[in-house]
Amino acid sequence: MKITIDPHINVRVYNQVNPTSLETKGDAILMKIGELSKTAGVSVRSLRYYEEQGLITSTRLENGYRDYNSLMVEQVQTIQFYLSLGLTTKQIGGFLHCVMASEEAFCKEIMPVYRDKHKELSDQISLLSSIKSNLEERMAYILQQNPTMKEEANNDDPKSNRTGV
């Protein structure tokens, strides 16, 4: 399955929060971890991990419960977006504050991260292509040495109607 991300997408994600079901403090809408989890579409465990990594913040109540500002919904969804690009939470932490305060295009911290990730992916693709090529050579060699393997390989896969490698 190929996942395509539109490069022109604005990474700021907006979600509707039903303010009538949530506690308010001044102008801020507050929510418990379960409410944030449901609204943002991520697990409670992920939210705790993001907080541990310094990507999101909460206010601790006297009973130990976490209270989150409703703005955390957008922040969590932005984190999810960057994770889908293959970035680590450490990398995201290096520029998240900037993209939450401004647009991605104006955050100088992000381009080096994107370049590093692009190089890493290019290196991985190169390595995988080399491994694939080596496997194809080995398969061709085996079939050259023992042509009956070709028939056996096709018989092993009932869906395969191919006659070649």
From TrEMBL:
Region spans: Disordered: 145-165
PROSITE patterns (UniProt xref): HTH_MERR_1, HTH_MERR_2
UniProt biased composition (Basic and acidic residues): 149-165
SUPFAM superfamilies named in the record: Putative DNA-binding domain
InterPro entries assigned: DNA-bd_dom_put_sf (IPR009061), MerR-type_HTH_dom (IPR000551), MerR_fam (IPR047057)
Domain HTH merR-type, first and last residues per copy: 30-98
Entry-linked Gene3D superfamilies: 1.10.1660.10
UniProt keyword annotations, A-Z: DNA-binding, Transcription, Transcription regulation
Protein name: Transcriptional regulator
Organism: Paenibacillus segetis
